[in-house]
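FORM 7B: Structural annotation worksheet

SECTION A. Query
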Amino acid sequence: MPRIQPTAAETMRATTNDIARLLDVLMTEIGKHAKRASAAPNNWGFPGNLMKVRSDLIDTTAFISGMGREEIEAFLDDTADAN
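SECTION B. Predicted structure
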């Protein structure tokens, strides 16, 4: 019997669910990373790791939104200035 391919809507739901789960895992791992970093406050490797993740997330956000990287960085800068 031939396998029935999922519809676009089914694939969208499943993929959105996967992304949400991955974001949850990412936040958990960032928390663990912060605990390890607190034991070595002078180790620049820890913030370097997060800078890489941040950069990748900016690229991902730019891709999905159609916005430019510069726009996203400006948004982050504006948000940081407000705090």
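SECTION C. Observations
DSSP finds three helices and no strands in the chain. Residues 15 and 52 are 24 Å apart (CA to CA).

SECTION D. Sign-off
Analyst initials: ____
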